[in-house]
Amino acid sequence: MAGILDRFKETLEELNVDSTRKVKVGIIGTGWIAEAHANSYKQCPDVEIVALADIIPGKAAKFAADNGLEGVRIYGSDRELIDNEPDIDAVSVCTYNRQHAPCTIYALEHGVNVLLEKPMCVTLEEAVDICRAEKASGKVLSIGFQPRFDENMKMVKRIVESGELGDVYYIQTGGGRRSGIPTPYGTSFIEDKTAGIGALADIGCYSLDMVLNAVGYPKPLTVTGITTDFFGKRPETYPGHPEYAEKFSVDDFAAAFIRLEGGITLDFRISWAMNLDTPGDTIILGTKAGMRIPSTECWNGSIGGPLKIYTKIGGVEVDTTVPEQDNHGDNFDKKIRSFVDAVKTGGAAPVPSSQIIYNQAIIDGIARSAKLGREVTIEIPEI
Ligand SMILES: NC(=O)c1ccc[n+]([C@@H]2O[C@H](COP(=O)([O-])OP(=O)(O)OC[C@H]3O[C@@H](n4cnc5c(N)ncnc54)[C@H](O)[C@@H]3O)[C@@H](O)[C@H]2O)c1
Known about the structure:
Shape: globular
CATH class of the largest domain: Alpha Beta
Oligomer: single chain
Strand order of the largest sheet: 14-13-12-11-7-10-9-8-15
Bound molecules: nicotinamide-adenine-dinucleotide
Largest sheet: 9 strands, mixed
Number of helices: 12
């Protein structure tokens, strides 16, 4: 019995990971999400956090003190860290979106593996530059989509891949919040100069990844999109901070109609704020069956209830409920561990840029289409 169960255990040994060698890691940008990175790296006995960087004076040092990282070297920018840490193996890029591309490219160009927070970046052009730097470096670049490690998300993909739905031809996805413009630690999510894009990229990238990953990341061909900002610009949206309304310079809602290679249509909408609880469940329609993925109140990386499959058996309409899967551990810890394993083995990136560039291309296409007021085609240059 033990022998059978052991076959299902993913151990460091099976992955050929040398658990005695410590991976030296740095964190670039010590804001909100950096703490989750630090906590997950601390769970890895074979990882040492050696350096932190933030451009706000004193912020990285305070982060070190608050997170029990005494003795860690502190720098005033990503470049200073990379230039002064020739032995570092990897960095987590935890800056706001506008700094994703420059920090990632600089690290890759200096031979450092990168775990890049989502969304990949702001524009498709930046995504292409990142992919080119990755290719030239031969290093690991993984994008920080922790829902990929959620057992229910994996089930969505397994169901599509099993063929139970037949040929998928239409997907509706998205989600969002009734009232959830993120300003917990200031305005970095709502200003163009730091975030670049609002809800469309911040939580839209998750919805897109859920369905695109399930159907094998088909190439996007054309996009018609709109973005709006009705709530972000209202002072009453920010109790205690009415001045944020003046700074709001991104979208708080986006919707789009996207044609994908293989004849799949993708209908998408996402919101940080709206006069509704949810803009709808995710549905995946196939020629043999359809699947409903209940939306969550605030897009949180998992499903909002059991998956339902609608089909016909023997000419009779049958609905099947798929039991929710036990998640065995924290998705964020798994995202960090899988990156560390890839760094140690030189293995494939757990969430590869070759897929996420399509996610970014759609976001970029929606932003472009919204600006131009018409449909746009998506062209991705050779990497
Ligand atoms: N995966 C998740 O669940 C999750 C959750 C929250 C945020 N995020 C993503 O993480 C990123 C950061 O979000 P946050 O909430 O921590 O933002 P934040 O604004 O709290 O922190 C970003 C930090 O980066 C620093 N910074 C910017 N440019 C820098 C540079 N060149 N060198 C060093 N430091 C630099 C800023 O000074 C700031 O302290 C965003 O892209 C966001 O989308 C992911």
